[in-house]
Amino acid sequence: MAPSLDDESSLFNFVVRDGNGVKGIVDSGISKVPRPYIQPPAEQINKKNASKCEIPPIDLSKLDGPEHDEVANQIVRAAETLGFFQVVNHGVPIQLLDSLKQTAHNFFGLPAERKAVYRKEVSPSPLVKYGTSFVPEKEKALEWKDYISMGYTNENEALQQWPMECRCRDVALQYLKTSHEMVKKLLDVLMANLGVELDDSNIDAFIGKKMVNMNFYPTCPNPELTVGVGRHSDMGTLTILLQDGIGGLHVKVPEIIDMEKKEEWVEIPRIPGALVINIGDMLQFQIWSNGRYKSAEHRVRTTSTKSRVSIPIFTSPRATQKVAPLPQVIEKDGISHYREFLFSDYMNSFFGNAHDGKKSLDFAKIN
């Protein structure tokens, strides 16, 4: 039964509590964006005003050859400025990337009752959550997005608990496994620049926890009024993102960058076969780098032409990991900008509030 668009309680129950998601209201035949999804004017995205980010992708295969130092410098420079870059020749098979996109479309095309069994309140596994928006109970305006989230602790648990519908488990697990070497290479470069050697004894401190999401952005009758995802930075270490051919990812150019577009939003273009990498809060001003690397503020627009999918891998410390600026970095800087904390506390703060740019970093700042 379609919800009443004029009754916010009815709409909320239909979308969130009954598990129909945004796709459910789109399938009901709406012709306008319901009021709870209309963002304040300052948060709305004008596609016509967005320019493309012209930074070319980084060829990771060259890290293993004579151009290693040049490529490493490109990675560090991107991490210290925009906080976003794209990589090609990354080792993840293109065929797998295509399969991931199709699998996401197939999953969200399932009847609502088959997806709703994974809602947080009823999911058979604490590792798996199907939901919509970010924190619907806390948001002043909802986000035009549905998602399935699959947390990873070890392969056996993933095999037993991740959803098997539409081969979600199999392709997502393969994506996670084949991207691992790429993530290690990127961290090797970024940590070496801080004077830290990455090895098996300390890698869990950076990426001991992983999560694969499949995000679905249904077509929207008024894309200029709402957003797929609001302004935020990612809470973890590194995010690996697969975009589809539609695009819609926008990144805010920090004021520290000496370019005409500073403090404006640029769109990350779709490059066939590329993966998008962004720096998360745990590397950022963050926390290990004491502010040298910049977690990127980003958001996602919607579209009226075709439903869109994206598949990110979020890497972060384990919940019990203590996080603080690295001692050798503090020694060089002469000051610490961030306090020590448990990652679980940061995570609870992050998910306990609606998206609000990079305000999440206030949790760790030393005033």
TrEMBL record:
It comes from the Eukaryota. InterPro entries: DIOX_N (IPR026992), IPNS-like_FE2OG_OXY (IPR044861), IPNS-like_sf (IPR027443), Oxoglu/Fe-dep_dioxygenase_dom (IPR005123). The keyword Transferase does not apply. Residues 202-317 form the Fe2OG dioxygenase domain. Keywords: Iron, Metal-binding, Oxidoreductase. The keyword Oxidoreductase applies. Belongs to the iron/ascorbate-dependent oxidoreductase family. This is Fe2OG dioxygenase domain-containing protein.
